Amino acid sequence: MNAKKNQTLIVIGGIIVAILIAALVVFLVYARSAPAENPFQLQMGQTLNEDGTGVTDNGTSFSRAKPIHVIADYPDSGVKLDHTAILSVISESSGQVIQKTEVNEDASTKQVRLDLDNAKWEPGIYEVTFARSGTMVGTINFSLHE
After folding, report:
1. For each of the chain's 146 residues, which pLDDT tens digit applies?
2. Which element (helix H / strand E) includes 86?
3. Is 30 in the same domain as 49?
């Protein structure tokens, strides 16, 4: 009788361990497939709205005939404003930073804006990056044409 009881306990213990392992695997897969939502919004375009806080033609393909405005919008709350924010434009062909701006965040920081001097840039693919104290927060790839 004791042997049968021990065997039953071993089977039940094995089932519990298997369930725990399965739960851990499901948790890890879900955690990696559902990253935290980025609270920052990047936008870029060639036409600013009336108050200059946004663009009316948000896109990723632009003529170099007009300046491009890049805006990183901050959320209304939930973000500690004590970082150095950097908006950069990188040429995909050379890998070089073409233009950037750095802002030391404070309580008044609602957005970071970079007006690009793109009139003399070569047509091609570029990448806008938004980082805070060295941590990448967002990117946009865009094309520049004649």
Report:
1. 677 777 888 888 889 988 988 888 877 776 666 556 789 999 999 999 999 999 999 999 999 999 999 999 999 988 999 999 999 999 999 999 999 999 999 999 999 999 999 999 999 999 999 999 999 999 999 999 99
2. strand 84-91
3. no
Dist CA 128 CA 111 (whole Å): 15
Residues 18 and 83 in one domain: no
Q: How far apart are CA 67 and CA 101, in angstroms?
A: 16
Tokens of residue 42, six digits: 């990047």
Structural domain of 125: 41-145
Token match 């957005």: residue?
Answer: 111
Three-state DSSP state, 82: coil
pTM: 0.74
Same domain, residue pair 102 and 75: yes
